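Entry for adenosine monophosphate complex. Fields follow.
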Amino acid sequence: MTPGCVPWPAETAQRYRELGLWTGRTLDTLVRSHGERTALVWDGGRRTYRDLADRAARLAVGLHGLGIRRGDRVIVQLPNTPELIDTLFALFTLGAVPVLALPPHRHDEIGHLAAHTEAVAYIVPDAHQGFDHRELARRISGPKHVIVAGEPAEFTSLASLYAGPPGSAETGELGFEPPEPGDVALFLLSGGTTGRSKLIPRTHDDYLCNIRLSAANARLTPDDAYLAALPVAHNYALGCPGVLGTLYAGGRVVLTRTPSPDDAFPLIESERVTVTGLVPSLALLWAEAAGWSPHDLSSLRLVQLGGAAVSPELARAVGERLGRVQQSYGMAEGLLSQSPPDDPPELLATVQGRPLSEHDEIRIVDESGADVPAGHSGELLVRGPYTIRGYFRAEEHNARSFTSDGFFRTGDLARRTETGHLVICGRVKDVINRGGDKVPADEVEEHLLAHPGVRAAAVVPVPDPYLGERTCAYIVADGQPPTLAEIGAFMRERGAADYKIPDRVVTVPSLPLTPVGKIDKARLRNEAS
Ligand code: AMP
C-alpha cells in the first residue's frame, strides 16, 4: 500500500480475499468488457465501452509520457464531463492516484491538497460555471503539471495527451506495469472531520467491493441507465453504485450539465434513465417539478436518497412522484447502508437501509465508548471490507478517528432496529451538513478569526426547510462588526469554497461557555433554530 496509508491487518485482508469480498481485480478493467455497448452519454455525445477503454489507454500513455508514474498523486478537479471519466480510467490504468477535488473548491482547499499529497499534476477545466480554473491553477504551487480540459492557455492541453496508438487497450502494450489490487486507486475527500479535508485512500480491492455490493443491492444490469446528477467526484455518485457501479454492471452512464429538472428531465426521458441518486434538497425540487413537467419520467425505477437526513415525508413524496426510493446512508470512508431491494414502502420512508455486507462490523457506543443496549442510539462505529483503517498521512487524527482495534468513528448517531436496519438520529461531529455539502465548523471559524474585525467565532447549523441545515456564525466583533457580505468576500479572497461561507452572521457581546470553559455550541444551536 502507498506509504502514509494504514493497511488492513494481513490476516483480515487474507480473510476478505478468501471470502471473495476482495476479488483481486483493478478498477481500470471495468471498461474493458461489454465492447460495443454504450458506456457513456452526455449532452451531444456517446461513447461505447470499447471507445472508453481505448481513450483511457491512450491518455494513460500520454500522462506516462509527461513522467507521471504509478503511485503518483494527481489532483483532478473536473465537473461531470466525459473528460472526467477518461481521466479517471487513464489514471487507474497508469496506477497513478486521482485526488478527487470538488468543482467548487478554491485555492485554500486545493493548496492544502497539493501540499498534503505532493501531487505531481493538477487537472482542471478551462472554465466552469463562469469561473476560470486556470486562474486558480496559477495560484497553486507544487504540481509540476497543470493539465487543462479545453483552452489550455500556458498549460498542457488534456486533448494533446491522448498519445498512445488507438487499440492500445486491447494489445495491452502500454509500456508500463498495471496497478496491483492492493494499491490505492483513488483519494476521496472526507467531509466529516475537523480541520482541513482528510484524504481517504481507497484501494482497488476495497472500492471494487464497495461498488460491487452497491450495484448488486440496486440490482443493476446492462439494461440500466444511471443519471449522474450529483458531482461524480463525490463518493455517492462515483461508487455507491454511481458511475463505477453502473459500468461494472455493463449499463449506461448519463451525464447531465446541471442537476436542475430543466436539464435532467429531458435526459431521463430520452435516455430512459432507470436509476439516479439525489440529496434531499434536490429530491424536493425534482418531486415538485415532476408535478408540472411535460417529460416522461416513468423509466425511473430507483431513486436513491442520501447524503443528508431524509424526512419520511420527502421519501414518500419521491416514491409517489419519481420512482421507488432507496435510502442511502454512507460516507467516503466506507460503510454504506442502503435499502435492500425488497424493503416495504414504510421502511423505505423511515429507516436508512441496511449495511451492505454481513462483514460490515457495526458497533453503537455511548460517550465512554461502551456498547449501548440493543435498540438504543449512540455513536456508530464501523469496521469492514470497504471501510478504511486510516486517513492518508494523518497519524494524530487517526488516533482520534479510529479505535485501537480499527473501528472508524463515523461521528454520526444511529440506532439499529431489530431487522438490522440503521436509523441515523444526528451527529456528534462538528460539521454542518448543508444539503449534502459538508462544512467543518472549525475550518470556517479559522477563516472568521483571521478577519481583523472578529475577536471570537463559533459556527453552528440552523435548520432549513430546503437544505436541511444552513450555516450560522456567531461572532464577537472587534470594533465595527463585519457584515455578511464582507465576510463572504473575505472568505472568497482567502480561497474558501462558496458553500463554506456562512449563510447568517449574528454578532454577540460574548460567546456562551460550558462549565469547563468550552464554547457552548449546544446552546448556540438552540438559539439559532
Ligand atoms: P460524505 O463522506 O461526504 O459522503 O459524508 C458522509 C456523511 O454524510 C455521513 O457521515 C453523515 O454524517 C452524512 N450522511 C450521509 N448520508 C446520510 C443520510 N442518509 N442521512 C443522514 N446523514 C447522512
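NOTE: The chain has 17 helices and 27 strands.
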